[in-house]
């Protein structure tokens, strides 16, 4: 997103950002205006009041909206088809039953979280959550209660892995800016991510599931009774091995991309190589999900026929229009804030405060996250701003540098709200209204980011 270098005073831009968020709260929560309409209206007004040239207002809105759709629409569409096939054929129920049988009914949310932590090592937050959704809903249906009890441990697992652990792009880019060792960051990231997830996602989900009842009602799941050994059409459900193969395939493919990219950054292998480029292409998330969908079609078409497969794939797409549009509109709002320079204005006010590096990194990143929405943008921008200060600092150990990266990532995780496309993705996938999403998802994200920061701060003091 191009920064248009608006000439307005920083204090004006900050007040404008605050006013835009309050306007969204009023329109969505108080006036009950549909989130898509409210986001479009507030994005347009924010662009105008920020001083973006009138001729560039619509291009700015369209570019940020389209950019979000480019990263979300393919994933949601392909993920919806995969999820639908797993659900209607009984595959999701097979995996859910196996997880519950192995961990026990009381530990079902823990089982979902552990599985998501494993999947989340190479796979991005949105793709991982979408692939896990049919399994989450199958477990939730079996035990009733609030979907939050089962969804938040999985969502939190993908969130912490995406934010704190290489080879995800945010921590890798921040490590590159600050000169942190990628291998050591992987160890430190895992050391901090695991207790952060347990405290901020798993334990919190036990409270949130009791405090907020969210019924099982999703675009990816039909609430109908079903024998775990049968599909909706009475056929024998697929084998556990087939379901695992479908779920692991995108993980393996995406790991090829992220793993090869890490080797490229470390200088272990050379770039400009056809074989390397091909492996990375196969591991791009949309391509990996497309290959997985094709495998699913091959497996299930033998039993149900292509006519049924075509019908199910078509049925999966119709309900997700709202998910995609609202998510794109959330990205549009965040894009307007970035283009107006609000994030830069905030960072400029905080960069020279004289705070300890690790504290300054967390606060600047958190403010950028609140101002413009994108966790990756907040993380990488803060790392770039902090790089000169880190370079001038003496006595920083290798672990200290890793802890600064984790602190910045923690700040980039907190306070997910209306300008974060992930906020809308979770809201729509779990069929939650905006107020409930703020009281659950936003609280969990804030817990995760804050706990990670505290652990990083303590670790840096010890070492």
Tally of contiguous helical segments: 20
Anisotropy-based shape: globular
Average pLDDT taken over every residue: 79
Strand content: under 5%
Largest sheet geometry:
none
**Fraction of residues in H or I helices:** over 70%
Structural class: mainly alpha
Q: What ranges have pLDDT less than 50 throughout 5 or more consecutive residues?
A: 223-228
- The counted number of beta strands is 0
Distance between the termini: 39 Å
- The radius of gyration computed from the alpha-carbon positions, rounded to a whole number of angstroms, is 22 Å
Helix and strand element order:
HHHHHHHHHHHHHHHHHHHH
Number of domains: 1
Write a concise keyword list for the protein shown above.
single chain; 463 residues; mainly alpha; 20 helices; 77% helix; globular
Question: How is this structure best described in words?
Answer:
The chain has 463 residues and is mainly alpha-helical. 77% of the residues lie in helices and 0% in strands. It has one domain. It contains 20 helices and no strands. The longest helix has 35 residues. The chain is globular, with a radius of gyration of 22 Å. About 1% of the residues have low confidence.
């Amino acid at each position: 997103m191009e920064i248009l270098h608006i000439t307005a005073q920083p204090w004006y831009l900050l007040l404008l950002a605050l006013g835009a968020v309050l306007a969204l709260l009023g329109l969505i929560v108080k006036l009950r205006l549909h989130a898509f309409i409210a986001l479009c209206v507030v994005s347009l007004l924010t662009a105008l009041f920020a001083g973006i040239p009138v001729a560039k207002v619509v291009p700015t809105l369209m570019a940020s909206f389209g950019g979000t759709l480019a990263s979300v629409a393919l994933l949601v569409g392909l993920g919806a088809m995969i999820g639908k096939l797993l659900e209607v054929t009984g595959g999701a129920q097979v995996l859910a039953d196996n997880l519950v049988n192995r961990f026990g009914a009381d530990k079902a949310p823990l089982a979902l979280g552990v599985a998501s932590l494993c999947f989340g090592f190479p796979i991005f937050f949105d793709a991982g959550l979408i692939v896990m959704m049919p399994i989450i809903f199958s477990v939730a249906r079996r035990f009733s209660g609030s979907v939050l009890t089962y969804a938040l441990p999985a969502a939190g697992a993908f969130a912490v892995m995406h934010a704190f652990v290489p080879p995800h792009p945010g921590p890798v880019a921040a490590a590159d800016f600050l000169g942190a060792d990628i291998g050591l960051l992987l160890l430190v990231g895992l050391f901090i991510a695991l207790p952060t997830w347990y405290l901020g996602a798993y334990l919190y989900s036990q409270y949130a599931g009791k405090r907020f009842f969210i019924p099982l009602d999703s675009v990816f799941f039909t609430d109908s009774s079903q024998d775990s050994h049968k599909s909706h059409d009475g056929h024998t459900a697929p084998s556990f091995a087939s379901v695992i193969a479908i779920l692991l395939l995108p993980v393996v493919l995406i790991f090829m991309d992220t793993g090869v990219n890490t080797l490229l950054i470390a200088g272990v292998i050379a770039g400009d190589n056809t074989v390397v480029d091909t492996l990375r292409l196969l591991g791009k998330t949309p391509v990996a999900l497309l290959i997985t969908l094709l495998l699913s079609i091959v497996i299930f078409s033998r039993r149900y026929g292509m006519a049924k497969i075509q019908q199910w794939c078509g049925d999966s797409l119709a309900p997700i229009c709202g998910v995609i549009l609202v998510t794109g509109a959330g990205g549009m709002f965040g894009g307007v804030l970035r283009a107006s320079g609000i994030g830069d204005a905030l960072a400029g006010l905080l960069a020279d405060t004289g705070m300890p590096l690790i504290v300054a990194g967390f606060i600047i990143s958190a403010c950028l996250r609140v101002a413009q929405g994108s966790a990756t943008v907040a993380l990488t921008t803060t790392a770039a701003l902090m790089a000169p200060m880190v370079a001038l600092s003496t006595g920083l150990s290798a672990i200290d540098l890793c802890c600064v990266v984790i602190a910045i990532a923690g700040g980039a995780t907190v306070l997910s709200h209306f300008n974060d496309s992930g906020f809308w993705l979770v809201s729509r996938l779990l069929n939650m209204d905006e107020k409930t999403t703020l009281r659950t998802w936003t609280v969990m994200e804030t817990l995760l980011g804050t706990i990670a920061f505290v652990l990083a701060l303590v670790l840096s003091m010890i070492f």
